[in-house]
Design brief:
Two copies of one chain form a homodimer. The first copy, chain A, is α/β, with parallel strands linked by helices. Chain A has eleven helices and twelve strands. Chain A has three domains: 47 residues, 434 Repressor (Amino-terminal Domain); 129 residues, 3-Layer(aba) Sandwich (Rossmann fold), CATH 3.40.50; 134 residues, Rossmann fold (3-Layer(aba) Sandwich), CATH 3.40.50. Chains A and B meet through helix 3, helix 4, strand 2, helix 9 and helix 10 of A and helix 3, helix 4, strand 2, helix 9 and helix 10 of B. Chain A binds a DNA duplex through helix 2.
DNA sequence: CTTGGTTTTTAATAATTATTAAACTAAGTC
DNA sequence: GACTTAGTTTAATAATTATTAAAAACCAAG
């Protein structure tokens, strides 16, 4: 709902075809002697056109006086019920960092559930949402609309140049680290188990892998590159299963890089079930990190930014900490290598 | 922050020992030419004495314009980053039902993250948390503490007799429906693929299965009963794999009931990979329902309560709708059979 | 059509808030 | 002491909002 400029009760009255006296009475809660339908019509219209009285600009309050809610929005087509350990960790980091500062994270909806009208309602100043974190990459028009309604917007794992702040992991670095690690272990034939086939993130990770291989004068063989629709453990198993029929070939890879730790874990289980040893026969390394990198008997080697840290950094940004006085900050967090036990030297 | 009566900018100015002009400028965000300390002092004082401008009484808005918060808590050891499509759906239902009523769901933390001190802070009256939904079964002392702090507590998928409201699915009915369905298809040898081994819910579902089989004069053979640690697709595959070595036996089951749809789905993929046909060779049915029951090429037959509906019902309860004037309500929602294509007649 | 009750408007004006140029004040520098 | 600068006040007035009694309009029922 656009709010081009201040609108007065006199203008509201003209727009509604009623008297300013009635507008004032309704907006101040007078109910006796006012038709309830008229009352509601007045309120809906006033909120709809963004009416606020003179006297106070709510968005000018010093931070300490603000009601402490920060909204978060999921990119389409995510839903609360679609498992995503990645964004679950982001939310976890966001929740705790906000909580430590006396704020609460409030789910506003998913990108494709939020019409401009709905966004306008959410960000009406009387609702006191102090800022928004957007989890994942949303459509540019959506982001433009959002930043028009509130200036406190932080994009997580996406960047919108000149529109808002952003926090990302250094994903190219992750692939560089993983490839360097595998190369140092002697691996010269490396395959790819990709997931979340429709996402730009998949393509970006694949491109970064190709680039990182190139710096070692290596390349991906299309026969040993597969991409599945989602990216959970079961799909990691499916992905390696699709390639195992070719395992007798002399050029079969000695290591695979996977889209995420979940897929590496699933692939590892599937390989072991088929009699392969990980990392003795095949090494598996992942383009991100998670609990699976550090917990349990099988710990996936990988590189990436802790998504908890993304959430924490986003919380700090949305609250205005370490923010430039003007313009927008793009934070790129490091993506260090985490060595587990899923990678080992090339088998002789 | 009490608001005994209207205070005007002129009065603010007198109280602060400054001019009304400066008050107006500061409250409207004018920063150039105003000392930042003065600016903040004005705002703090204005908010402190409850100043609001004329023109609109926010607390008189029809319901549609008010923001209200309902907290939700996850049972231990869940975290936001531990995938649970079940509780994700519950949250989804809760979020939408609350949103439709002008409320927002706010994550308060997981059971084992919330000390009594922390709970006390959360439920301080100034924080406007209007009630709590508890997702899953928490420790009795925790629930007792929670209900001491606020009376608006709803337990989801758990019951605390005499302590709070609750909403559950009729899980015994689900198993009755599933067994009846399989029996009608001719199945007389039925196995169990259990998950979430450490949860009371698993044990309850298993017990309900045994009971439902008993009414058909059937029983579970321990050789065809397996339980895995978690309950995702990959683990469904593992569970059936563990039993397949016995498939040549004459008494191998013709159907398996699984802990949830995820496991049934994963088991189905694993069976197909081994050359079995589902449901031609083995039928799979699940003790709950989800999107996997109704979407896609493979649709899992199962019975259960839609977790979205649990969330919606909880929202209504926590807001006081259809609630008894005193005492506590325990809602048990029906668990209907949803027939997919994972079950079929016994193979001759 | 008349009547009674409810809702809304009118007109006026009081109260509140916004805005602005000029004047004032305090602090720092030379 | 003179000068400069930043912050604030003053005085005036325009704009916005609140309030109220009386009048007008509307609607349903008889």
């Amino acid at each position: 709902m656009p709010r081009p400029k201040k609108v007065s009760q006199t203008q509201l009255a003209k727009q509604l075809g009623i008297s300013q006296a009635l507008v004032s009475l309704a907006l101040n809660g007078r109910s006796t002697g006012i038709n309830p339908d008229t009352y509601k019509r007045i309120w809906d219209h006033a909120v709809g056109v963004g009416y606020l009285p003179k006297g106070m600009r709510v968005d000018s309050t010093p931070d300490s006086a603000r009601v402490k809610q920060i909204g978060f929005i999921l990119r389409a087509p995510l839903r609360l019920y679609i498992p995503s350990t990645y964004f679950g960790h982001v939310q976890h980091g966001l929740h705790h960092a906000l909580e430590a500062r006396g704020y609460r994270a409030v789910f506003l909806g998913a990108e494709d559930e939020l019409s401009p009208e709905k966004l306008g309602q959410i960000f009406h100043p009387s609702h006191h949402v102090g800022g928004v974190a957007v989890l994942g990459e949303v459509a540019q028009p959506f982001m433009a609309e959002l930043t028009r309604l509130t200036r406190r917007v932080v994009a997580i794992s996406a960047r919108y140049h000149g529109l808002c702040h952003s926090v990302l992991g250094n994903e190219p670095q992750a692939l560089i680290e993983v490839v360097r690690h595998l190369h140092a272990l002697g691996h010269r034939r490396i395959g790819w188990l990709g997931g979340n086939a429709t996402l730009g993130r998949h393509d970006a990770r694949l491109a970064a892998l190709r680039q990182a291989l190139k710096t070692h004068d290596l390349s991906l063989d299309p026969r040993y590159l597969t991409v599945v629709a989602e990216a959970d453990r079961a799909e990691g198993g499916e992905a390696i299963h699709a390639l195992l029929p070719h395992a007798k070939r002399r050029d079969f890879p000695t290591a695979f890089v996977t889209y995420n730790t979940q897929m590496a874990y699933g692939a590892s289980l599937a390989l072991q079930r088929e009699g392969w040893k990980v990392p003795g026969d095949i090494s598996l390394a992942s383009a991100d990190v998670s609990r699976l990198s550090v917990e349990g008997a099988l710990r996936i080697t990988g590189a990436g930014t802790s998504p908890d840290k993304l959430g924490e950094a986003a919380a700090r940004l949305v609250l205005g900490e370490s923010m430039p006085d003007e313009g927008y900050a793009d934070l790129v967090l490091p993506a260090p290598l985490v060595i587990g036990n899923s990678t080992g030297p090339v088998r002789k």
